[in-house]
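for the record, two folds in this file. i put them one after another cuz i was lazy. first one right below, seq on top, structure tokens after. the second one comes after a little note so u can tell where it starts
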Amino acid sequence: MTWLFLGIAILFEVAFALGTNATKGFTRLWPSVLTLGAAAGGIYTLSLALRDLDVSVGYTIWTGLGGVGTVVLGAVIFKERITTARLVSFAAIIGGAVLLRLTAV
């Protein structure tokens, strides 16, 4: 269940990040409500995952993969460019998250 909770937390993190753009500075009611709900859901499910994961591993994976998901969906939804440098950065983030997991006690 730990990894399921972390996966759900990552989805909430991506929804929070993308939703923040839709709030227009939290001046739009429903996007703001959904964004705050996603933030709360992400923190809650992350806290469930951290019952069994070291915070250094869980938080890093949450923010790293949440960031990668945000960039990928930002490219799809907002037509943001994905450059070679960004691809290399994604690989470094994912590689670092995997290495953290493999070295966790």
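(here's the note) second protein begins now
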Amino acid sequence: MAQELKFGYTIVYVKDVEQTAQFYQKAFGMKVRRMEQNRKWAELESGQTTIAFTPLEQRETSLTGGVHVPDASEAPSNVIISFSFDDVDAAFKHAVDAGAVPVSTPEDKPWGQRGGYVRDINGVTILVGSYVHEP
């Protein structure tokens, strides 16, 4: 019998969990759902899925071979976090004003979305985009 699949959460390994959670609050307006007292885990309210942060160094990272931290001079990793907003341009500006590094300013995409890219304080690439509207 097949079990129902539910996406649990996305975990982002970061240098400083508390600082990263505060950045996402300031840059994207997200609320912290849970911050462990030892500051080694934070979860943010992000709709039906959860984004979570945990430190770079821990048992799980050694089991999987470590974590590669992206450098601003390198190409982005093969995963991008995407946040959807009604006013993409305002959200993009707000994120940059809060410390996100602009990668490309918002533009209209041929598939019906408006979006631009930033990097967070850990070098993670984020799409600041609109919902895709069917033509």
